[in-house]
Design goal:
Elements (H helix, E strand, L loop, with lengths): L3 E7 L3 H9 L4 H4 L3 E9 L3 E10 L2 E12 L3 E8 L2 E12 L5 E11 L2 H8 L2 H20 L10 E7 L1
Antiparallel strand pairs: 1-7, 1-8, 2-3, 3-4, 4-5, 5-6, 6-7
């Protein structure tokens, strides 16, 4: 499968966005297709978690480790499940004018030809919706943008 990369500028702080993405246990509340999460182990700079992803009649679970470099970066290490591989990274940079720049990268491939076929047709749109869900969640958790401040704006978006 092709990789996906998005960069967005948001009016929320680097720390706010880091904390939002690091709250893996909350993903089923807002993240499309995330049916359940279970935190297996939590350390100061890492979380081992099981996630269940579902779409229509298909459910798959996988285990990954999120490594935290607070508040700048989160790296996801794939451990087991239905994938051949997974590389996922979030970077958070503060902006001089306020807010932050979020850089999201993911590259993964399902082992199953059926899952590759199902996901292939909607890969980039699904990932855009996923990143958008984090943006919407920030609005819900941290409140709307104050009057006169920069709107939520997509800086750039590209598929690798």
């Amino acid at each position: 499968m092709p990789a996906h990369h998005e960069r967005r500028v948001l009016p929320y702080t680097q720390t706010q966005m880091f904390d939002l993405v690091a709250a893996i246990e909350c993903y089923p509340e807002f993240l499309p297709w995330c049916v359940a999460t279970r935190i297996v182990a939590r350390e100061e700079k890492a979380v081992l978690a099981d996630l269940v992803i579902g779409f229509k009649m298909v459910r798959e679970s996988f285990t990954s480790r999120a490594r935290f470099d607070r508040p700048a970066r989160i790296d996801i290490e794939y451990l087991s499940g239905p994938l051949k591989h997974l590389r996922n990274q979030w970077q958070f940079r503060p902006l001089v004018a306020g807010g932050s720049e979020i850089d999201f990268f993911i590259d993964f491939e399902f082992r199953s030809r059926l899952m590759r076929g199902l996901m292939g047709a909607m890969f980039h749109e699904a990932l855009r919706r996923m990143v958008g869900a984090f943006e919407t969640r920030a609005h819900v958790v941290y409140g709307p943008v104050a009057a006169g401040s920069a709107p939520l704006a997509e800086l750039s978006q590209k598929q690798v």
